[in-house]
Amino acid sequence: MLQILLVDDERSVVETLAETIPWESCGISTVHEALSGAVALEIMENHDIDIVITDIRMPEMSGIDLITTIHEKWPHVQTILLSGFADFEYAKQAMAQESFDYLLKPVSDEDLIETVQRLVDRIKQKWETAASYQRALHAFQDNLPLLQSTMLHELLTGKTYSPSALADKLELLELPYSIGEELGMLVIRMEEHLSEMGDHDLSLMQYAISNIISEVMQHHFHIWHTRDVHDYLVVLVSVKKGAVQSMNKEEKPQTLLEHYAAQIQTNVQLYLKGAISISVSHWGKFPYEIGAIYEGAVRSMRKRMGQAQGLFITASDDKDVHPLPAIRSLYNPPTLISLLEAGRFDAVEQKIEVIFEELLESGQHHDIAETTIEVYHALAGAFAYIIHKNGKQISSVLPAETYKYFQAPVYATAQQLKDWSIRTLYSISEDAEQELKDNHSTIVRSVKSFVDQHLASDVSLPAIAEHVHLHPVYLSKVYKTETGEALTAYVYRLRMEKAAYYLRSSSAKVFEIAELVGYNNTAYFIRVFKKFYDLTPQEYRENLPV
């Protein structure tokens, strides 16, 4: 949906257009109003305007001057000029400034709607052209290295794909890997002055190291690299087809990988004047074992290298027994906290189901008492975090029976812990929903109060939005969601109902009633009143029962 800006120095003209034209049916979601060129430019600075309809004859800045400035600063914005002067010179100036159309006042609703609809169709066609396959392909190629790096980062942090989706994405990103293929990994930590660089310089240095890796290993290995959350450079490798035949009989992929890793370490020291530590992983199958390979390499880096610098370790050096497995789904993205912050409560419930499935599966091989403690604290921490972040106390959101788990966990089985988790989630979800309803109700009450008090002055959407401190687009959506009526339609209806009330209950003249409900131009008032009641104000008054 698009945003439109109406500009005219006569308030009644602007407000009449805003209220009487069915903008939503034309593809317009938000209508902004300005009474001068200067105010129009200010609105343009703060909102993503798509179409401007402006009068030509205005004090200080004419409509021609306004659209000239608009086309210089916002060349994508489309303009329509309105004028009460049937002067061909104005039309020529409008065409010179590439205005979409030139309409004479008083313009009929039908002509304006038809013009706006044609312009909206034209804008949509431009969008479709901009999103053409060729443009998308060029953008894709420009960002291919970043997309490849992002996918590897997602796999390292636990994202999964169906076999068909994974194969399609690998083909799309031009990655020569296949499901079930044997892969190795290097995890590289930068030391000395390299690790002290700013983020921009660090990225450049990692790019330089990646080039060295490609140069050293290109004859035998495919290279796929990314930067992890620890600022380590993670390099996934697979043996190129035909490379095995070119290896010496005593050379194995693991041995060759270790040899190349040592050479990379030397070259970085020689050419980049900095030290790196390298952990060479054991090999595993793609993509199922990537997470375990990565975690093993990072764990070796942490446990065997510590704070020492310039070290080199391999999987064959690691004599550790297999650690007690963590519940990976607790930490795989999206995390519980990120889902709770986004208000995606259905997704949180699905994640809890996955967590407890993994917990029960781990119980087939290990005592789950330890991992159940891990799950409890992760869940309780996430729930407490989101409640406190919303500015509330846990006891105020949760029922007493659920709250007591935070004071003293009383679960005896994994199923009891799961049931408590779901109950807690439901309470948080219901509290958030009620708070949202309360906030929206407060906004609607504030809007109606403001409109009622300022009906005779400025009750445009921007003015109301400024009063309630909300963005006009958001305010429009909230109001319509809560009331089922567009905000501009409400203002229009209220004005007409107030005008009818004054016609019934007072002897005020029509022009006086027009001013009371915000119309300075009596002719416009009569026109919009007749459109609403199918009677002129005078006819409405004359038809009142005696």
Automatic annotation (TrEMBL):
It is found in: Cytoplasm. It comes from the Bacteria. The modification 4-aspartylphosphate is found at residue 55. Residues 3-120 form the Response regulatory domain. Keywords: Cytoplasm, DNA-binding, Phosphoprotein, Transcription, Transcription regulation, Two-component regulatory system. It holds the Pfam family HTH_18. Residues 445-543 form the HTH araC/xylS-type domain. InterPro entries: CheY-like_superfamily, Homeodomain-like_sf, HptR, HTH_AraC, HTH_AraC-typ_CS, Sig_transdc_resp-reg_receiver, Tscrpt_reg_AraC-type_HTH. PROSITE patterns: HTH_ARAC_FAMILY_1, HTH_ARAC_FAMILY_2, RESPONSE_REGULATORY. This is Two-component system response regulator YesN. It comes from Paenibacillus pabuli. The lineage of its organism: Bacteria, Bacillati, Bacillota, Bacilli, Bacillales.
